[in-house]
Design goal:
Strand order of the largest sheet: 3-9-8-5-6
Shape: elongated
Largest sheet: 5 strands, mixed
Number of strands: 18
Number of domains: 2
CATH class of the largest domain: Mainly Beta
Strand content: over 45%
CATH architecture of the largest domain: Sandwich
Helix content: under 10%
CATH superfamily of the largest domain: Cupredoxins -  blue copper proteins
Structural class: mainly beta
Distance between the termini: 92 Å
């Protein structure tokens, strides 16, 4: 009796293999809409029609509807400077990438027609220094702990001055800074100033001997 050999056929199944590093579809840009005109109005809104005040960093597609030949829509901020023409009307689409920072939009022909929004987290508020002159013949500049300022690191400060006399003033002067209250002024002034390395003085212009000084030094390395 003749024997027959049975051949077993094993099917091969083809499967898709995801190769590491293969391209993936890009994330879809978030849609925003800008409008200007036909009256004295300008706005930037999200897909729900809500006015934009804060956005996350990333890619956005902005469709601007310029409805007036008296206005334009000018968007600017870190890495972005886009605008329609004042004379032109119609829709324009921009693809932009927003990074952390403050962005503004306005009409160049009417600067008071404007808006703004922040992308990412707001920077921390500047450190506060408290200046005072009067009510007697005294003058001082103190930190948040109440200590006289003698040496501070270079950065931006909010300086709040309490002028409690009409016979002296508070005059702060140094590299890039020259701010003062009036000699007859009595009240509070607030200045946000960038102090750089160097020597600063604050004095009364009415009594020059009423003065103090401090130094601004390079901030320590983190």
């Amino acid at each position: 009796m003749r024997k027959f050999r049975l051949l077993t056929i094993v099917p091969f199944v083809l499967a898709a293999v995801l190769v590491p590093g293969a391209a993936h579809p890009a994330a879809k840009a978030t849609a925003l809409s800008g409008t200007v005109g036909p009256a004295f109005s300008i706005a930037l809104r999200d897909a729900n029609g809500v006015k934009v005040t804060h956005l996350d960093p990333g890619a956005y597609t902005i469709t601007v509807n310029d409805q007036s030949d008296l206005h334009n829509f000018h968007l600017k901020g870190p890495g972005v400077n886009k605008f329609t023409t004042v004379e032109g009307i119609g829709k324009t689409t921009w693809d932009v990438t927003f990074v952390d920072g403050l962005y503004t939009y306005n009409c160049d022909a009417h600067p008071n027609l404007k808006g703004s929004f922040r992308v990412g987290n707001a920077p921390p508020p500047p450190a506060r220094l408290n200046g005072r002159v009067g009510p007697k013949r005294t003058i001082s500049l103190r930190n948040a702990s109440g200590r006289l300022v003698k040496v501070i690191p270079a950065k931006t400060y909010k300086i709040v001055v309490k002028d409690a006399t009409k016979t002296d003033n508070f005059h702060l002067k140094g590299p890039g800074v020259n701010k003062r209250t009036g000699v007859t002024f009595k009240g509070t002034k607030a200045w946000t100033l960038k102090l750089v390395e160097g020597s600063y003085t604050y004095r009364s212009d009415a009594h020059p001997k009423l003065r103090r000084s401090f130094k601004v030094v390079k901030p320590p390395t983190p």
